[in-house]
Amino acid sequence: MKIANRIKNLGTETAFAVSAQAKEWADKGNKIYPFHLGDMNMSTPQNIIDAANKYIVDGKNGYCPSEGILPLREALAVDVGDKRGVSYNPDNVSVQPGGKPTIGKFIQAVMNPGDEVLYPNPGYPIYESQIEYHGGIAMPYSYDQTITGFAIDIEKLKSSITDKTTALIYNNYNNPISAESSRKEMEALAQLAIEHDLWVLSDDAYYEILYDTKPQSIVNIPGMRERTVILYTFSKKFAMTGWRIGAAIGPENVIKVINKLNVNAESCTNHFHQHAMVEAVNGDKSSAKAILSELRSRRDTAVSGLNDIDGVNIAIPQCTFYLFPNVTKIMERKGIASVAELQLGALHASGVSFCTRDHFGRPQEGETEFYIRFAYSGISVEEITEGMSKLKLYFESSD
């Protein structure tokens, strides 16, 4: 018997492969400093836990509407709209079992086989995977490194648009590079989307993981609300990665299609979790602020540790919980030609486990610099300090 040919086009979230590698090394008795996966080792706020317990005891354990329960859709419509300066109603909201399902459902809703979809690269690898799995052509756009971080190469993106281009995936507050668009950059993207009549997926997974700046959304630029679907997730700001609940928020016509896909994919999202999320949206936010404060401490410690390594120099990102240092000089000093070799060498020499640029989309033609990614959401300040000191020894050695 044969497996369907289309499975060959399905990628994976490659950070999990690094997790397996780290586990194998740990199982041999070695200490691991886990910077590889954007998971969180902090507790979900107690008021949310209490609400979930209450609603499972109250019998919210059966099927519910495929689009999500009305109280949660109402709460999200108000909260997401108010924070982005636009108006939504419950019919603009489709509750999802996590943030990731919105990617595939958006693509199924707006892309025909053979259509082209622009996506950020480096970027979340599931974009590339879902475009190609559903028969589309994945068209990467890239970033230029600046003294303050990374900026989209607008001219390259513009030159990639053809009459087959149907959608643009935009991840402001980007995983893996923590890129934050200026208003000018955001307006340039909006202009291209409007000019070429493109759908836009605004991946807002890290929309509220900002340290010293206020979030901005492409959806409130005139002409964008009616063509933009927001990927919303509770996972990051409330330390709920394993709860698997999020939402797609956008124009009613595409949300109706996504609701139909919900019926076919999972019937509905976890019932009692949805009721608990009403508390998450409308309830006490002090624990979420404490999570952000802890992430700031970890960021500052990790940035300091990396910048203390000869050959590494990174700016302090104002968003997400990722660092994306250039390690070209490190590799030259060590005589290493493959960033995968550097990654494995660091794991075995120091116990520090991280991802590489290659885990976030296929490298593009002409790339000459090498990068790695650190996630500091699942490791304590003390372990960051200890791990960085061990990594420094390995990176600064010539063998």
What does this structure look like?
The structure is a single chain. The N and C termini lie far apart (49 Å). Strands 2-10-9-8-7-3-4 form a seven-stranded mixed sheet, with helices on both faces. It has a three-stranded antiparallel sheet with strand order 11-14-13, with helices on one face. It is an alpha/beta fold and 399 residues long. Helix content is 40%, strand content 14%. Strand 3, helix 5 and strand 4 form a beta-alpha-beta unit. The chain contains 13 helices and 14 strands. Helix 2 (46-57) packs antiparallel against helix 9, helix 10 runs parallel beside helix 13 (381-396) and helix 12 crosses helix 13 (381-396). The chain folds into two domains: 5-43 and 287-396, Aspartate Aminotransferase, domain 1 (Alpha-Beta Complex); 62-282, 3-Layer(aba) Sandwich (Aspartate Aminotransferase, domain 2). The longest helix is centred in the last third of the chain and has 22 residues, at 286-307.
Give the terminus-to-terminus CA distance: 49 Å
Under CATH, the topology of the largest domain is which?
Aspartate Aminotransferase, domain 2
What gross morphology would you assign?
A: globular
Count of helical regions: 13
Any idea what the CATH superfamily of the largest domain is called? Type I PLP-dependent aspartate aminotransferase-like (Major domain)
Q: Give the helix level as a range of percent.
A: 40-55%
Rg calc:
21 Å
Mean model confidence by pLDDT: 95
- How many strands appear in the DSSP assignment? 14
Q: Return residue spans where pLDDT drops below 50 for at least 5 consecutive residues.
A: none
Count of the domains: 2
CATH class of the largest domain: Alpha Beta
How large is the share of residues in beta strands?
Answer: 5-15%
Largest sheet: 7 strands, mixed
Tell me the series of helices and strands, N- to C-terminal. Answer: HEHHEHEHEEEHEHEEEHHHEHHEEEH
Classification by helices and strands = alpha/beta
CATH architecture of the largest domain: 3-Layer(aba) Sandwich
Q: Largest sheet, order of strands side by side?
A: 2-10-9-8-7-3-4
